[in-house]
Amino acid sequence: MKKPLKFFFYSFIILLIIYYLITLIVPQIFDKKHNKIREKAPYVISKNAQSVYNSLNFVADMHCDALLWKRDLLKDNDFGQVDIPKMLKAKVDIQAFTIVTKSPKGQNFDKNTGSTDNISALYFVQGRPTSSLAKRTISQCEDLFQFAKDSKGEFRVITTSNELKNYIADKENKKNIAAGFLGVEGAHALDGKLENVKVLFDSGVRMMAPTHFFDNKLGGSAHGISGDGLTKFGSDVIKKMVELNMIIDVAHSSPKIIDDIVSITNKPIVSSHTGVKGTCDNVRNLSDKHIKAIANSGGLISIAMFEQAVCGIDAAATAQAIKYTADLVGVDYVALGSDFDGSVTTPFDITGLPLIVEELLKLDFSENDIQKIMGGNVRSFLLKNLP
Asked: May I ask the CATH architecture of the domain 47-385?
């Protein structure tokens, strides 16, 4: 081999080795930086609260972004907020694994555009596909199914109501198992193609939000520029989702989009992770009008667990938002929607969910109501609304 060819060959091999090392090291650095916990486990829980938590027959959370980070979810990691061993330890029955495909640089709560993208760089250092938002979505779907396959029966991906019924029956037979289902944050993941709704559905997606942190082809984000409602394309997407029994998630949607969705469908809708203006007034959170609209649809208001959503840094702030919502529309429409691993600092990881029970007891919620809030409502909703 001639010297110039040898030089380029060996240089290429060295670059490949460097890139491989980057994919091993850098993703963990990003993960640890963006998904912090104020207090590490184990958590101090009163005997009464722990007893009530242990009695829960179904525990569920409607939102986490753990798949974004390419973390090994089969390991009990010492960073991040969700993995499957922690779910098993906390006896969490089902976790919504929601997929982020694009995020603007300088992301903030008030005004963002879609002209920049943080996720491309993250995907590059993870060794994941960057060319298409739909491909990014599909790759995260495939990852969750692979975790299920490699879990030796400890974890399942739920895509139908029958699968959920079978899971519940197995759990009642004392099997130590956990499950997840797939959602998407922002339907820019469709790459502007209506046919991709079915593509993502066939990949396992069962819940999708029209927008995330910026306006897109479907309409306006709560954090975007326009404040617009649904476009014609957005309406077509919602109708296709209804046809497929894909759950409509209005988290991050502009108020006008929520109004439009309520006007064009009689299907139940959810906000998978939210605060409420009644306890924390910002553009991110639901007004009383929209809390009532979601409840009237038969949907769920899933309360988040980070400071910007609940105006507090502990479980008590989340419990106050739950109480406000329950007082307004009734306990049957309230759920948990942590936003674990969503580039937010949370008071605890998923094993700290008993702390929510502790605070709900302080607010005089009955054990029956706590059963509903901590997962019973999600179980009923999914049994009715999954395909």
From this structure: Alpha-Beta Barrel (3.20)
